[in-house]
């Protein structure tokens, strides 16, 4: 077995961080994975300076998409929302610590895309 | 099945650097025996020409091969050659049929499908109803995902113009009593449309005995190449329906004020068809008949599927979908693993060189019925073996120890 399912990812899958709906979120965005139909919703509190003070997510999915969402919420906290919306697949691969195949790329960026949808809807 | 049958398939010979490939995604795509590849190559290297007008030698040979392929397909499903329209696949067949039948559905009419359909036998009819102001009725399923004939009977009304039903579920392997459904449709004066994508490659199909008006299937799911499919239409239906595409090869006369159409099936085959595909499909049918025929293939697959169901069913983390008995199911097994997403199951199995399908299988209404996002599906064909089943079950146990261990 290669390390796609190494402990780092399985840990985030089994015990996802920030998996709840933030109350009074400034940003709510969702996205569906066309590959499998999995849905994810991202929530964020963003202060007057455009800094993400809290981020959370809700949704069911595979180990990759759930671990990615969990890692993404930790990563985004304290950073600028307009920078976080530009997180790329490569950035997510770095967070996950593994490269993902063309088929699973959607899983790795599902949370980012949901955040971006929310950003475009709520903040543009 | 002949024990060394995999040696007929170059793809299985090409895998040497890892564990032998266990290919269990046959409901999506099947592999091609060298006989089929050779027939296609021969067309491309010895007599490639269009089929419409070449008087020259290879042009004539191409026409003969193409029309002979039509005759082979017709015989295979008990039809006449004039009732066989070549398309690019089941999806294309059904979409084309939707356009052909558009004018026969009016406001207030009804089209019926079932809750187990593939999206390609669902959305075209939903769209047709939207466009024509007709009612789109989805037959509800029983808890095990099967169809009740009583519900089919009671749903029909004087307004029902079309019923479109799959012969075999591509998710659970459930075999529908399409003969009875077609009989009910005939009694009510509605068109019966059968999606045969999962039946024609695996079991005996006789469209006359079935009594359907239309029957669609794909070449690439029955040892043929991609891009070739079939729409069977009863002669009297094809005669009165209008074509959905226009151009070369489908006309009788063209004048500046009006054009008229050739007889079926040419009327429905505008433009250059997939000639090599048709030739490859016919060769696939010959191959299937030479290795024992569909009855033998069906028995072999059902045996493997029953074994897989039994072995997987004895694992406590596994949930199986579909009917419990193996009499009314084909060689398809769908399951989920408690606490593991289907894509993760498939990904771990892929690392053992086991190819299964995971996800909603283009059957979201059925997934909603079961209340799940997707399943893992193993679908068998003539070249699969008991060793393949053993490897699958072993792989599933590895997934469990990885995620639950």
Name its key features:
heterodimer; A: 124 residues; alpha+beta; Sufe protein. Chain: A; 5 helices; B: 405 residues; alpha/beta; Aspartate Aminotransferase, domain 1; Aspartate Aminotransferase, domain 2; 7-stranded mixed beta sheet; 15 strands; globular
Concise account of the structure shown:
Chain A has 124 residues and is an alpha+beta fold. Chain A contains 5 helices and 3 strands; from the N terminus they run H-E-E-E-H-H-H-H.
CATH architectural name of the largest domain in chain B: 3-Layer(aba) Sandwich
- The number of helical elements of chain A comes to 5
CATH superfamily of the largest domain in chain B: Type I PLP-dependent aspartate aminotransferase-like (Major domain)
The CATH level-2 architecture of chain A is identified as: Alpha-Beta Complex
The helix-strand sequence of chain B is HEHHEHEHEHEHEHEEHEEHHEEHEEHEH
**Overall 3D form of chain B:** globular
Largest sheet of chain A: 3 strands, antiparallel
Instruction: Give the termini separation of chain B.
Output: 38 Å
Could you describe the 3D structure shown?
The complex is a heterodimer of chains A (124) and B (405). Chain A has a single domain (3-122), classed as Sufe protein. Chain: A. Helices cover 42% and strands 18% of the residues of chain A. Chain A is built from five helices and three strands, in the order αβββαααα. In chain A, strands 1-2-3 form a three-stranded antiparallel β-sheet. In chain A, strand 2 and strand 3 form a beta hairpin. The longest helix of chain A has 18 residues, at 105-122. The radius of gyration of chain A is 13 Å and the shape is globular. Chain B has 405 residues and is an alpha/beta fold. Chain B folds into two domains: 5-30 and 293-404, Aspartate Aminotransferase, domain 1, CATH 3.90.1150; 36-289, Aspartate Aminotransferase, domain 2, CATH 3.40.640. Chain B is built from 14 helices and 15 strands. Chain B has helices at residues 10-13, 34-46, 57-76, 90-101, 123-132, 149-155, 178-188, 207-210, 235-240, 275-290, 293-313, 342-350, 364-370, 386-404; strands at 22-23, 84-87, 110-114, 135-139, 160-166, 191-195, 214-218, 229-233, 251-254, 259-261, 318-321, 332-337, 354-355, 357-359, 375-379. In chain B, strands 2-8-7-6-5-3-4 form a seven-stranded mixed β-sheet, sandwiched between helices. In chain B, strands 11-12-15-14 form a four-stranded antiparallel β-sheet, covered by helices on one side. In chain B, strand 3, helix 5 (123-132) and strand 4 form a beta-alpha-beta unit. In chain B, helix 11 (293-313) runs parallel beside helix 14. The mean pLDDT of chain B is 96. Classes of the chains: A alpha+beta (124), B alpha/beta (405).
């Amino acid at each position: 077995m290669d390390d796609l399912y190494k402990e780092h990812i399985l840990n985030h899958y089994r015990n996802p961080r920030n998996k709840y709906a933030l109350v009074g979120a400034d940003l709510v965005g969702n996205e569906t994975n066309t590959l499998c139909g999995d849905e994810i919703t991202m929530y964020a509190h963003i202060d007057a300076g455009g800094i993400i003070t809290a981020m959370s997510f809700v949704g069911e999915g595979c180990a990759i998409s759930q671990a990615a969402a969990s890692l993404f919420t930790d990563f985004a906290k304290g950073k600028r929302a307009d920078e976080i919306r530009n997180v790329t697949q490569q950035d997510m691969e770095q967070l996950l610590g593994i490269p993902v195949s063309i088929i699973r790329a959607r899983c790795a960026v599902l949370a980012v895309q949901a955040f971006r949808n929310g950003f475009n809807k709520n903040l543009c | 099945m002949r024990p060394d049958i995999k040696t007929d398939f170059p793809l299985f010979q090409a895998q040497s650097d890892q564990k032998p490939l266990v290919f269990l995604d046959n409901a999506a795509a099947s592999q091609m025996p060298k006989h089929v590849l050779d027939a296609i190559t021969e067309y491309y290297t010895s007599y490639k020409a269009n089929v419409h007008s070449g008087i020259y030698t290879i042009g004539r040979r191409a026409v003969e091969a193409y029309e002979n392929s039509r005759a082979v397909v017709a015989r295979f499903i008990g039809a006449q050659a004039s009732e066989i329209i070549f398309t690019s696949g089941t999806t294309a067949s059904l979409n084309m049929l939707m356009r052909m039948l558009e004018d026969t559905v009016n406001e207030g009419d009804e089209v019926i499908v079932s809750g187990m359909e593939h999206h390609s036998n669902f959305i075209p009819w939903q769209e047709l109803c939207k466009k024509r102001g007709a009612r789109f009725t989805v037959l509800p399923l029983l808890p095990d995902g099967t169809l009740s004939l009583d519900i089919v009977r009671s749903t029909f009304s004087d307004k029902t113009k079309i019923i479109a039903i799959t012969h075999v579920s591509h998710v659970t392997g459930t075999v529908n009593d399409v003969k009875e459904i077609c009989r009910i449709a005939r009694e009510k004066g509605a068109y019966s449309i059968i999606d045969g994508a999962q039946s024609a490659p695996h079991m005996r199909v006789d469209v006359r005995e079935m009594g359907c008006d239309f029957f669609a299937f794909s070449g690439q799911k029955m040892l043929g190449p991609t891009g070739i499919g079939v729409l069977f239409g009863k002669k009297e239906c094809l005669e009165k329906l209008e074509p959905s595409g226009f151009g070369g090869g489908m006309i009788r006369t063209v004048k500046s004020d009006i054009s008229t159409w050739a007889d079926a099936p040419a009327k429905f085959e505008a433009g250059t068809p997939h000639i090599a595909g048709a030739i490859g499909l016919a060769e696939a049918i010959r191959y299937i008949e030479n290795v024992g025929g569909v009855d033998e293939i069906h028995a072999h697959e059902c045996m493997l599927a029953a074994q897989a169901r039994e072995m997987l069913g004895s694992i406590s983390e596994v949930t199986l979908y579909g009917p419990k008995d193996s009499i009314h199911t084909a060689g398809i097994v769908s399951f989920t693993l408690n606490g593991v997403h289907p894509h993760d199951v498939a990904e771990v199995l892929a690392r053992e060189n086991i190819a299964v399908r995971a996800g909603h299988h283009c059957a979201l209404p059925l997934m909603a019925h079961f209340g799940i996002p997707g399943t893992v599906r193993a679908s068998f064909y003539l070249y699969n073996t008991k060793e393949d089943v053993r490897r699958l079950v072993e792989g599933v146990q590895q997934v469990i120890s990885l995620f639950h261990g």
